From TrEMBL:
Pfam families xref list: ABC_tran, oligo_HPY
Residue span(s) of domain ABC transporter: 27-266
Protein name, UniProt field: ABC transporter ATP-binding protein
Keyword Transport: yes
Length: 334
């Protein structure tokens, strides 16, 4: 028994508007290689991102965070749903139109070790998008590369070095410089600090915030580290098994989470105060995350939820406003 999902409505100037986004991957089997099942990696995501803000997208590994980011940028073709960037419906564009639109939307990848071509110098890596979009002659591009390197905290003197000559943090700065080369309005940062040392993570996060203020960027910040997301995000969306289960301002979500899954996630964050930590109640979820090939009926979270009742097994809870600007997909929030 399905119920129509009420999507959250954006207020203010909306840059990115996603409704009903689905990404299903076919599972082949048998001698003829027929499709025998579908992996429902993203199964009906609704969210919006206002111009100039950072929306954090969190959840455990395999919940569909990175796939959502890639589908928004059309790096993966969505199975269903709509994605609008500054009013333009991206899913309706042709390959050539999407290519031209890439100047407005870029991505910072998770692994700085595998996302940079080892055969290219740093100058070639950063200048490649400028050359592809004909942004000036050779001298102008060279000057812009030097400026971009300085902007992200790298010495332009190293322009002819290769990626393997840099540390992880420096490589991620190179990836950020490449993403900024075309002056995009929207950037998807796919776990940009998860592969870095803790001491370097803060430097990269501060750099991203500085660049946001300098260039007026809008971020979708994908991560599984709730402390990192709290530091950088204006609002936070929580995903579980392909769906957004809660969406709210960062401070509201961390202080008064409404969805049981969000409550369980936040209870796992250690508090740097031994007395407070001893008094805290840790929520231990029973069972494992269901398979996206065969998700549960109704609410995806009901097999592990201590509040689950009959309606949870039958009706998909809509993502609707429970408090002011605080959305949750739960029949029994709070």
């Amino acid at each position: 028994m399905a119920q129509e999902v009420q999507t959250p409505q954006a207020t203010g100037t909306t840059l990115v508007d996603v409704k009903g986004l689905k990404v299903h991957f076919p599972v082949k089997g048998g001698l003829l290689g027929r499709t025998v099942a579908q992996v429902k990696a993203v199964d009906g995501v609704d969210l919006f991102i206002r111009r100039g803000e950072t929306l954090g997208l969190v959840g455990e590994s395999g919940c569909g965070k990175s796939t959502t980011g890639r589908a928004i940028l059309q790096l993966i073709k969505p199975t269903a749903g709509t994605v609008k960037l500054d009013g333009v419906e991206l899913t309706k564009l042709s390959s050539n139109e999407i290519r031209r639109k890439r100047a407005d939307m870029q991505m910072v990848f998770q692994d700085p070790y595998s996302s940079l071509d080892p055969r290219y110098t740093i100058g070639q890596i950063i200048s490649e998008p400028l050359q592809n979009f004909n942004r000036g002659n050779a001298k102008a591009i060279q000057e812009e590369v030097g400026h971009l390197m300085e902007t992200v905290g790298l010495n332009p003197y190293y322009v002819n070095r290769f990626a393997h000559e840099f540390s992880g943090g420096q490589r991620q700065r190179i990836g950020i410089a490449r993403a900024l080369a075309l002056h995009p309005s929207f950037v998807v940062a796919d776990e940009p600090v998860s592969a870095l040392d803790v001491s370097i993570q803060a430097q990269v996060l501060n750099l991203l915030q500085d660049l946001q203020g300098k260039f007026g960027l809008t971020y979708l910040f994908v991560a599984h580290n709730l402390s990192v997301v709290k530091h950088i995000s204006d609002r936070v969306a929580v995903m579980y098994l392909g769906r957004v289960v809660e969406l709210a301002k960062s401070e509201n979500l961390y202080e008064t989470p409404l969805h049981p899954y969000t409550q369980a996630l936040l209870s796992a964050i250690p508090v740097p105060d031994p007395e407070v930590e001893l008094r805290r109640k840790r929520i231990i979820l029973e069972g494992d995350v269901p398979s996206p090939v065969n998700p549960p009926s109704g609410c995806n979270f009901h097999p592990r939820c201590w509040k689950a009742q009959a309606i949870c097994r039958e009706v998909i809870p809509p993502l609707e406003e429970k408090q002011s600007n605080h959305y949750a997909a739960c029949h029994f929030p709070g």
